[in-house]
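Hi R.,

As promised, here are both runs. First protein below:
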Amino acid sequence: MRIGAMLALVATMVVPAIPAAAADSPTFNKDVLPILQKNCQSCHRPGQIAPMSLLTYKDARPWARAIKNAVVSRKMPPWFADPQYSHFRNDRTLAQTDIDMLTGWVDTGAPEGDPKDAPAPITWPEKGWQIKPDIIVDLPEFKVPANGVVEWTDITIPGPFKEDTWITSMEILPDNPQVVHHIGVLFRQHTSEVEYYKPEFAVIPRDESGSAFPRHKNDAPRPTSGSATQRVGTFTVEASYVPGISAFDYRIYGAGKLVPANTDLVFSMHYTPNGKELIDHSKLGITLAKKEPDRRYLTFSISSPNDADSFAIPPHDGNWASPPAIATFDEDCEMVWAQPHMHIRGKDMTYTLEYPDGRKETILNVPRYDFNWQLGYEWAEPIKIPKGTKIVAYAHYDNSEANRYNPDPNRTVYYGNQSWEEMMQPWFAVIVDKKVDVRKVLRRAGPVITGAN
């Protein structure tokens, strides 16, 4: 959830009256703090997306009623995967016993308890990181205007890799998350014609509302201010920041990414103005392998057809079905992570596998997608995918008046890169043997218009 929206939510839940504590009441130090450490503090600490810290009793006590209301309604911690299909190692869903404990603590006066009962504080990485980077790369500064439309902008900078390097995690740390729609990083082998630090973006004709004019299957490519935007479609986003995403960490799988010497970094930067001019100066953190891993971690995204003939959400339609996104695995691999990506009309997304022997399996169902919390889901056990398996993703959209985030239910909505337009992009990550030709792991189904997303 964007910070302003979260503040509005919690502000409506804070009320001052809490009864006095009983002698046998749950206490913060003994009963509540362990729950917060396990499920909440990754976001509720300084430098993270949540608007308040829950590290200490002093931090948490003013929000006691808000905590109760949020966990009873299951608004917090955010988690949207249907548990009947898969189990996830990063599932933050609270057990009913935890909800009862938090509720009992609030209802009996929210006492602090004996400090000796408190577990040791978690040692979080400094300065808001999820990982502890070995290398920190400063992204180019970007001036975000107070108003208007900011197109995706690609900026290439020299990479820090002077020799072939195995990396084991990456994280983008946004400077001003309230205006960041996304930031992605791509690897590209250096070529002589590259112009460093030059902003490059597609020139997209838009109507008075800011929506791009529809693009059809036979339309010519849109012009760009440079070459990077057109080239991005042939490369894989290696890591990204969107609201709710955590670091991409491959260490738990004994895997890494191999970055060849003299690889340039291309940052895909997209901002949404919020009425105040800001300078964003985000950072990329990287950890390095201590020894060469045996497996490679690969990140992919696929898309439904995105031309206006295939993807057009009718006005007032509360359950429009997108054409599916389809790809085929041409190598054996293991799927470990997934992240559905849609915009504010996104309603649900389902990932299915169609195996070579004819079996079909639903591996992820997100029945209540939330653009403000674009979570990544890490399976408790990697899913083994034999060569020839298809991944097929389905999604629905709510373009009706019932969608409180819908800016205009009276218009047809097309595929586009602004949040008031739409996307249908299932993201996922797989592990492969390091000897596999990574260019041949996944075969996407088309057509998808280059530069449309």
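And here is the second one, sequence first, then its structure tokens:
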Amino acid sequence: MPERDGYIPGVPCWVDTTQPDPEAAVDFYGRLFGWEFEDVMPKGSPAQYFIARIGGGDVAAVGSQPEGSGPDARWNTYIWVDSVDESVAKVLNAGGNVLGEPFDVPNSGRMATVSDPSGAAFCLWQAKEHKGAQVVNDHGSLNFNGLHTGDPEAAKAFYGSVFGWETLALPGGFEMWALPGYGDHLERDTPGLREMMAEAGAPEGFENVVASIAPIAEGEPEVPGWDVTFAVDDADAIAAKAVALGGRVLAPPFDAPWVRMTVIADPQGAMFIASKYVPENKDMATDGEVAVAGS
């Protein structure tokens, strides 16, 4: 895939994981995905923030847990905006909450941590020098972001108001978040993308998809949140490797429309999805969660 150089407002653009022991997480993910790391915090800083790269391109980061946060390790989703302060106002007007007030990350950008009305947390990112993930959809890089929610209709109202998102219905009753005009942006970067998607059997409008939305299933914990999916060449091999490195497989590899995927927790408990694109699976029917390549 061509290297990304920025995003448009309303598109998930970056992921990082906050960990009690960042160096242990660096060791795990470095071995799992082949990431190379650089701690970009000033020398002597009490916090650590390791940028992960593949072939020199930024893919994600591992950082210390913010002061005052809970002990749980987690993956965080960042959404690109033109103005963090204006977006925070939109979040509040739409019934969301501010978990971390806007602040500047020197030279890199400006951010805030917010949540939707159900409590699903995410970050807002106003870029300066750091323009999000440069490598996506390749092995070991960001592939997709997804919202789990107990109230899809309320989520549609909130994210539509804040980011202008709409939903795209897929066969089987699934829905995706779509941002009108996003396909035009992608087509400029990758000429012929719409044609390639059509040839692969993607539904009309799929080029505008930015994330997934899934209701919390009956019997699942009522914990709304955003999850992160990484592309992999072999979901089964990644699941086995994660276990060998001290992680846990929460959902063994299984086939779903378009993909074969697995759900993994790293040794400190941060959950993520690993997904292999399998075009032969496009017409599969499933009652489970679906993750689709192409963010």
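A quick note on the second one: Residues 22-33 form the longest helix (12 residues). Let me know what you think.

Best,
J.
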